[in-house]
Design brief:
Length: about 425
């Protein structure tokens, strides 16, 4: 027997087996079965459709697209009284071939937040169909879903994102089709947390409710099953790489308070270096963090650090200005006094030696010359400009040493109370 004949016989056998399976499955359906007509439970009650889903993997949380990519097992069950089950009795689950779904009425459920949904497939689609006697169908499938998840980053990196999963019927109102949770409503695999290094993951499911996302709907309310995927960002790494280093650079700028004001190059270089480092951190973090038109928590923190370093630089600028004023006032006072002393101590030119000698021996009357300006005020003791400026310099120095760290401490209390609440 050649290879071509063997292949033909193999394909024929597979087709016969498939046809046999399909024939066995189709025996459950009456000859007049119409898959476009929904089943009608006795008594006119709504069709009860049980739903549940379990999240197997979370592949990606994309904050730029505001979406979550995950895989999940989706299950639904409903009663089909038109099935011809024959001798099938008992409580056990009877597995059926998936070809039955091509000929069976299926609830038209969909997930509102889905951007993209794909069925897993290797040789056949990864799905299963079971019959729970006498007439309950259980369908299960593995799906890869990208969910739209509106996100807010005002508290980044302390943000908590809540992604909704809303399952409902597309065309049937709650009077015709009503959802209910199955025994296991919604859960996630225990390994999901390990798949998300940046987030803590957990699920919160809600009771079945009527349609609530539109206020002025022109059509009848539908039954809704909703669950929340909660993603709480882990911020320990941000504390170690952003918050602690930036606070230390601010403290390094404060070390200039304990350097003499006369050391202008060293004190200025210390403050400017700290300022440029914090600004560089702000620029680098801005490229990695989500782009928003509003301030995030990390932006507020880095802006606060920059402002406090700038305050330190301004404080030193004020001190240098006061010192320059001191030197100018000293020159205004001392130079006129030196000039006056020089005029009184210099002998007059001309005249005889005797006249100069008598003038030197006889006491001179008090000079009636007048010194104007700041020198006169300084000489009269009315005020002392250099001493007063020294006092101002001491006040500014103490205000910087105490006031700027105190502002940072108060801002820390407010910041952490607001963003960690």
């Amino acid at each position: 027997m050649d290879a071509a004949t063997l292949s033909f016989l193999t394909l024929t056998l597979m087709c016969c087996v498939g046809a046999g399976v399909s024939l066995n499955v189709l025996k459950l359906l009456p000859s007049d079965y119409d898959s476009t007509v929904e089943p009608r439970p006795p008594g006119g009650v709504p069709i009860l459709v049980g739903i549940s889903w379990s999240i197997k993997n979370v592949y990606e949380v994309n904050f730029r697209e505001m979406s979550v990519l995950l895989s999940m097992y989706f299950r639904m069950s409903w009663a089909e009284p038109r099935l011809v089950t024959g001798s099938l009795t008992g409580e056990g689950m009877v597995p059926l071939h998936s070809d039955l779904m091509k000929h069976l009425w299926i609830p038209d459920l969909f997930i509102h937040e889905t951007r993209e949904i794909t069925s897993f497939k290797m040789i056949e689609e990864v799905q299963g169909v079971y019959l729970r006697p006498p007439n309950t169908i259980l369908f299960s499938t593995l799906l890869q879903t990208r969910l739209a998840c509106p996100m807010s980053f005002s508290r980044y990196p302390f943000d908590v994102q809540v992604c909704n999963m809303t399952v409902t019927s597309y065309k049937f109102s709650e009077d015709v089709l009503r959802l209910e949770w199955m025994l296991k409503e919604m859960w996630a695999d225990i390994t999901v947390d390990d798949q998300l290094p940046n987030y803590d993951f957990h699920i919160e499911w809600r009771n079945i409710t009527t349609k609530h996302w539109c206020s002025n709907c022109s059509f009848a309310p539908v039954s809704v099953g909703q669950a929340e995927i909660v993603l709480a960002r882990r911020y320990a790494l941000h504390l170690l790489t952003v918050y602690v280093p930036s606070a230390l650079f601010v403290a390094v700028a404060w070390a200039s308070f304990f350097w003499p004001p006369e050391v202008i190059p060293g004190r200025t270089v210390l403050i400017i270096t700290s300022l440029l480092t914090v600004i560089s951190m702000y620029a680098a973090i801005g490229q990695k963090s989500p782009e928003t038109s509003y301030l995030k928590a990390i932006d507020v923190w880095l802006f606060l650090c920059i402002v406090l370093v700038v305050f330190t630089l301004f404080q030193y600028t004020i001190i240098i200005t006061i010192q320059r004023k001191q030197k100018e006032r000293v020159i205004e006072v001392v130079v006129p006094m030196n000039n006056r002393c020089h005029r009184h101590n210099t002998p007059a030119t001309g005249g005889s030696f005797t006249t100069r000698q008598n003038s030197a021996e006889s006491p001179s009357p008090p000079s009636s010359s007048k010194v104007d300006g700041p020198a006169a005020a300084y000489e009269a003791g009315k005020r002392s400009p250099p001493n007063r400026l020294v006092m101002y310099e001491q006040w500014v120095e103490k205000a910087g040493k105490v006031g700027i760290p105190l502002i940072f401490f108060i801002c820390n209390i407010v910041y952490w109370a607001v963003y960690l609440s």
